[in-house]
Structure to design on (518 residues):
């Protein structure tokens, strides 16, 4: 397989090698590999003509579409793609836009309308571009392309140059931008565990603003020359119909997607015999769901453990799932093994490696790791100390190298494939005049994996209802971050230094369950 130095090399190589073969299929239209490369060139020239230069950031706020990949492709002109979560509130989007100082924002009309109320605040954004050309006061995306040349942009780019900035959140609740280079994205794209190739048809249903949907699946499918069928949003009936119609061979899902596919009445009425590989990632996989999946489809599953900063960490391959179906059921509770030996180790609080069977923090060293946190050198140094990415995930590893996640060092909640940071929700709750303090945890949820629960202590003499506090959060956060339930306690358990003991709070809800988290 060809080794590429930059994302531009990959685009040019595949445009020549696969030329008229379909790279993307979206809503009845095919985009060939050659066409995709030309459209990236046209978009690059259009933005450069407007004055954007190497290193400038270009945001995209959109549902899944081929144009999303084109914005990622701007890396060949030295521009940095910033994918924005379309589920965020306008205030949250404004924070990210201002933090990374976007030069241009590309959005589809439905989401562009959500930006309008905050547009005047986004002074760093010089150009607003609408993907479907239906937003007043926004440049038309397709007009920009048709008015530009399809020639290569001619910008000197190296593999160590930044290519994409993915926002995550830290333990304090403040978002952090994980800056990935051409080489870290290509290193992720080239890992072959997804079993993609020119004869494969890949279905993309995970949102592209996540690394799980983009660098971990959209990019690899393109890298290996597969045809990628893109769904704008996940819909189980449409996904099943598409698998049958397009003879899809590979797909990637989060656990709740698999559950909805397995429970959908269309499942038994569709011919899904073309499926050869289903990758799952992004959230804890309930044992009941994966066992039902194995019974329905057989051992065609691959689990990928990863995170925004380090991308792929470990893999439970098809053989691991086959063994898990029969003689070694415990393997289905594992996160697999490091894809390459030596890339992962478990360490104690002093960064000393722990022996097999003992719990330690997962640290990783590979070419897939981010270059840095955007404008946060101290946090970068902390998380990358000793040259190893400290993931914040606690696990144990057996003698064969299988990793079993047991807890998170960070208080992150994973609900339906979305990362929710407890401190962020706590800060909103504590801004309510009736709330003295709050502790937010994830509790077991059959559908979503985890649900957000708030434990609240009210100020003396103050009153508030569960419904009132949930609505208060909904107005200030993305809806999926709001607590599903609120309980009122007289006090929170704390250690001598005053830190809230969340482990004690969780025990009530996670009793007898070994938490398996991503």
């Amino acid at each position: 397989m060809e080794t590429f130095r930059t994302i531009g090399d990959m685009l040019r190589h595949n445009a020549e090698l696969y030329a008229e073969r379909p790279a993307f299929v979206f809503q009845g239209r095919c985009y060939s590999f050659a066409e995709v490369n030309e459209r990236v060139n046209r978009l690059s020239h259009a933005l450069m003509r407007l004055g954007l230069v190497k290193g400038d950031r270009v945001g995209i706020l959109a549902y899944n579409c081929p144009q999303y990949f084109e914005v990622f492709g701007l890396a060949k002109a030295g521009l940095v793609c910033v994918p924005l979560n379309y589920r965020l509130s306008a205030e949250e989007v404004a924070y990210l836009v201002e933090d990374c100082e976007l030069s241009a924002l590309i959005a589809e009309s439905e989401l562009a309308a959500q930006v309008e109320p905050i547009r005047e605040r986004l002074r760093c954004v010089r150009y607003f571009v609408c993907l479907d050309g239906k937003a007043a006061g926004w440049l038309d995306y397709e007009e920009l392309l048709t008015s530009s040349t399809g020639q290569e942009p001619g910008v000197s780019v190296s593999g160590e140059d930044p290519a994409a900035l993915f926002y995550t959140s830290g333990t304090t609740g403040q978002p952090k931008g994980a800056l990935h280079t051409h080489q870290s994205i290509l290193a992720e794209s080239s890992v072959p565990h997804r079993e993609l190739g020119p004869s494969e048809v890949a279905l993309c249903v995970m949102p592209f603003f996540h690394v799980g949907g983009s660098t971990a699946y959209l990019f690899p499918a393109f890298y290996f020359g597969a045809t990628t069928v893109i769904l704008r949003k996940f819909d189980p009936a449409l996904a099943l119909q598409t698998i049958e119609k397009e003879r899809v061979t590979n797909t990637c899902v989060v656990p709740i997607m698999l559950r909805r596919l397995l429970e959908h009445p269309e499942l038994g009425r569709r011919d899904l015999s073309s499926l050869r590989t289903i990758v799952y990632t992004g959230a804890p996989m309930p044992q009941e769901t994966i066992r039902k999946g194995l019974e329905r489809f057989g051992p065609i599953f691959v689990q990928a453990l990863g995170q925004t900063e380090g991308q792929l960490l470990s893999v439970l391959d098809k053989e691991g799932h086959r063994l898990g179906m029969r003689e070694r059921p415990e393997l289905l509770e594992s996160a697999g093994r490091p894809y390459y030996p030596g890339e992962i180790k478990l360490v104690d609080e002093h960064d000393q490696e722990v022996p097999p069977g003992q719990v330690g923090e997962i640290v990783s060293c590979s070419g897939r790791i981010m270059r840095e946190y955007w404008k946060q050198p101290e946090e970068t140094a902390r998380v990358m100390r000793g040259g190893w990415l400290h993931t914040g995930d606690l696990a144990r590893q057996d003698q064969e190298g299988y990793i079993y996640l047991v807890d998170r060092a960070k208080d992150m909640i994973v609900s339906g494939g979305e990362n929710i940071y407890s401190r962020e929700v706590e800060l909103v709750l504590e801004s309510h005049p009736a709330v003295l303090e709050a502790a937010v945890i994830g509790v077991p949820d059959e559908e979503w994996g985890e649900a957000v629960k708030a434990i609240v202590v009210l100020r003396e003499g103050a009153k508030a209802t569960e419904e009132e506090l949930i609505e208060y959060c909904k107005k200030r956060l993305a809806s999926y971050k709001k607590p599903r339930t609120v309980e009122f306690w007289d006090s929170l358990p704390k250690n001598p230094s005053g830190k809230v003991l969340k482990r004690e709070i969780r025990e009530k809800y996670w009793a007898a369950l070994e938490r398996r988290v991503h």
